[in-house]
Amino acid sequence: MAEETRMLSADIELRTDADNNSTAIGYAAKFNSLSSNLGGFVESIAPGAFTQTLATGTGVDARALWNHDSSQLLGRMSAETLNLVEDEVGLRFEIDLPNTTTGRDVRELLNRGDVQGASFGFRVIDDAWGETEQGYPLRELRSVSLSEVSLVTFPAYPETEVALRSLADNKDLSFDDVAAAAAANELKSLIDQPTEPEAPGETHAKVPLSAGYR
Q: Are 167 and 178 in contact (CB under 8 A)?
């Protein structure tokens, strides 16, 4: 799976100690919260989605970046300048901002209240497709491999090709059909189309859809 990014608009706390060292604290992701429309579907993150990556080391050396730019490094887990914890709310981060041009700029922007968004980069380990209570297509991220968290200036519309390929595989549909339906905001109509009747004697296991969060 290719890497994806998701963004959360939330307050980021800036703490500065007596030695003028600053730490940015906030959440890069929150559980059980529906995203905005991502192109014909919405998304939620299941509790425990980051457990595997943080426990096994798949994402243990994740970086903290400015605007997903790898040249604008803010922290790193192996250097203990980035701390990531999965709690009951979501993925919480603490970034010890460096005394670099980028670090000082980010600290000033946070202090002024100009930056109020965080994001994370990931690859999907496990996801499931279902629908919300209103019948809207819902992708649930159940387990992800984390690569980085970023402080961001504003939300960018995420690339959804990976998600749409997941949906096509899950529903045994053509990716081109799924992509076209997403572009026309008609994914629900495509998913709800009746399937071809099975020939007598054929049996297929039915995979239950993931329930939307209330």
A: yes
Tell me the pLDDT of the chain (214 aa) as tens digits. 577 788 887 789 999 999 989 999 999 999 998 888 887 888 999 999 999 888 865 546 899 999 999 999 999 999 999 999 999 999 999 999 999 999 999 999 999 989 888 989 999 999 999 988 888 899 999 999 999 999 998 755 455 566 677 777 777 888 788 778 777 777 777 777 765 555 555 444 443 444 433 3
Helix segments in the chain, DSSP class H: 51-56, 101-112, 161-171, 175-183, 187-191
Residue pair 152/68 in contact (Cβ under 8 Å)? The answer is: yes
CA–CA distance, 139 with 132 (Å, rounded to integer): 9
How many C-beta atoms surround the C-beta of residue 184 within 10 A?
Answer: 11
d(Cα 119, Cα 68) in Å, to the nearest integer? 8
**C-alpha–C-alpha distance, residues 44 and 33, integer Å:** 6
